[in-house]
C-alpha cells in the first residue's frame, strides 16, 4: 500500500477515492494504534508543528492511505471547534502537547453530553456515530494527531442540548 504525504496547498486536487474500495475501514482501536504510531515518529509531522506562531486552529493532512488518513492539528489556547461528526468515518486522536477538552455524545442521544480532558500522551478512539466538540484547554498551544477511516468525506455540525438529539445545522464536504 502506498502512502502519500500531503502538505499545505489550497490549490491541491480533491482527495482521491480509495484505490481499493473493497477494503474495510479500520476500527476505532486500529485508528488509535495508527495515531500512537505516528506520535512516536515525529519525523513524519514535526515540520508542521509550529503552533506557537499561529492563531485559532490549523491543520495539515500528513498521511493518506487507501483505508485511512491522518492529520496534525494545532490549537491556540481556548480555541474551540463546535459539535461535529466525521460522516461515516471512525477515528481517534492523540494529544502530542497540551490538553484538549472534549464534550461528546452520539447522533441519536438525548442525554447531556459527557466531558473529558485529554492530556499530553492521551489517545481516544470513537465510532462513526460520535459527535463531539473539542477545545484547547490550558494556557499553551496544543498539538494533536487525528486519524479517520475511511478518509473524511463530510463533517456535519450540530446544535446539542440536553433532552433532545443533536440537531444538524450544516454539512461540509472535506
Question: What do we call the CATH homologous superfamily?
Answer: Jelly Rolls
CATH uppermost class = Mainly Beta
Mean pLDDT: 88
The CATH architecture: Sandwich
Largest sheet, order of strands side by side? 1-2-9-4-7
- State the helix count: 1
Cα end-to-end separation: 23 Å
Structural features, described:
- The chain has 174 residues and is mainly beta.
- It has one domain (28-173): Jelly Rolls (Sandwich).
- It has 1 helix and 11 strands.
- The strands form 3 sheets. The chain has a 5-stranded antiparallel beta sheet with strand order 1-2-9-4-7, covered by helices on one side.
- Residues 1-16 have low confidence and may be disordered.
Secondary-structure blueprint:
Elements: H1 28-39, E1 57-64, E2 69-75, E3 80-84, E4 90-97, E5 99-106, E6 114-119, E7 123-126, E8 130-137, E9 142-149, E10 154-159, E11 167-173
Antiparallel strand pairs: 1-2, 2-9, 3-8, 4-7, 4-9, 5-6, 5-8, 10-11
Question: Which short descriptors sum up this protein?
Answer:
disordered N terminus; mainly beta; Jelly Rolls; 43% strand; 174 residues; 5-stranded antiparallel beta sheet
How would you sum up this structure in a few lines?
The protein has 174 residues and is mainly beta. The protein has one helix spanning 28-39, and strands at 57-64, 69-75, 80-84, 90-97, 99-106, 114-119, 123-126, 130-137, 142-149, 154-159, 167-173.
